[in-house]
Design brief:
By secondary structure, this protein is an alpha+beta fold. The chain has helices spanning 12-23, 33-47, 63-75, 97-108, 133-149, 169-176, 228-246, and strands spanning 53-55, 84-88, 91-95, 114-116, 125-127, 159-162, 183-184, 200-208, 216-224, 253-262. The protein has a four-stranded mixed β-sheet with strand order 1-3-2-6, sandwiched between helices. Strands 5-4-7 form a three-stranded mixed β-sheet. Helix 1 crosses helix 2.
């Protein structure tokens, strides 16, 4: 199989400088070197289609600072055009409209499952998208919005905002970030959930990038251990798809997917 030519990888020092200069929020000391390099790797993973989106949470930098950061990476030859800043609520995501739309279209076809963890339930329960009709309309809205953004070539890094006043952001972000089993719960019951003291199987997917640096964390999500047998097919399909996408690029190597069971006194979503 022919692989696309890898994007030019600037020196780590240039990547660190790009992040610290654009995302430093005026502070004398910018983001730590390790954070800058990991963030650059995550952005490249989005560009390569290994994850549909990245939720920025390194500091309080906003959309304009993220635009500047991505423009710097483009200027270094690290990225081509195609990424987009999507604001939802008080949060900023870096997305590839093309890849995230493909992902959301698969979601509408039933590629993922949901776990209802509403506080009124005695224990978590598996739900399908057909049982969550309001999510179908929301996903279709996001697809329509991002499809329009794919045609915006007027700026190097476009930015847009989605109105989200009545959205369950925990579920929305789980979908956009590519989790195979996002959590959902009834908003009218508050932010509580029924996961306290529930054994959870936590999955992590890491992939190697720069020689001598820590692997990039692509995914980290959990499912209740009691539901793991019922979700095995969904999780296996997700893993198979991720490994297939990894084979279409040659910037990253050595994908490692692992899991462990943890039990916590409380779980914040």
């Amino acid at each position: 199989m022919l692989l696309p030519d890898p994007m030019s990888t600037p020196s780590p020092q240039l990547l660190v400088a790009a992040a610290q200069q654009t995302l430093g929020m005026g502070k004398t000391r910018g983001l730590p070197r390790s954070v800058c390099l990991h963030l650059s790797g995550e952005v490249l993973a989005v560009a390569r289609g290994l994850k549909p989106a990245l939720l920025y949470d390194c500091n309080c930098a906003g959309a304009s600072q993220l635009q500047s950061f991505l423009e710097e990476l483009q200027g270094l030859g690290f990225l081509t055009q195609g990424l987009h800043i999507l604001e939802i609520g008080e949060n900023s995501l870096i997305v590839s409209p093309e890849h995230v739309c493909q992902h959301l279209e698969r979601v509408l076809l039933g590629s993922i499952a949901f776990v209802d963890v509403s506080s009124s339930l005695p224990h978590p329960s598996v739900r399908s998208l057909d049982q969550l009709q309001h999510l179908k309309a929301l996903i279709a809205e996001v697809i329509t919005h991002l499809q329009g953004m794919q045609r915006d070539l007027s700026v190097a890094v476009p930015c847009s905002r989605l109105c989200s006043s009545h959205w369950n952001l925990c579920t929305v972000f789980g979908i956009l970030l590519g989790y195979p089993v996002p959590y959902t719960f009834h908003l009218n019951q508050g932010d509580g959930n029924c996961l306290a003291l529930t054994p959870l199987r936590v999955f992590t997917a890491r992939i190697s990038w720069l020689l001598g640096q820590h692997p990039v964390l692509l995914y980290s999500f959990s499912v209740p251990e009691s539901l793991f047998p019922a979700l095995t097919d969904t999780l296996n399909t997700w893993e198979k798809d991720l490994r297939a996408r990894c084979r279409t690029q040659n910037d990253f190597t050595d994908l490692c997917i692992s899991s462990e069971v943890v039990t916590l006194p409380a779980v914040a979503l």
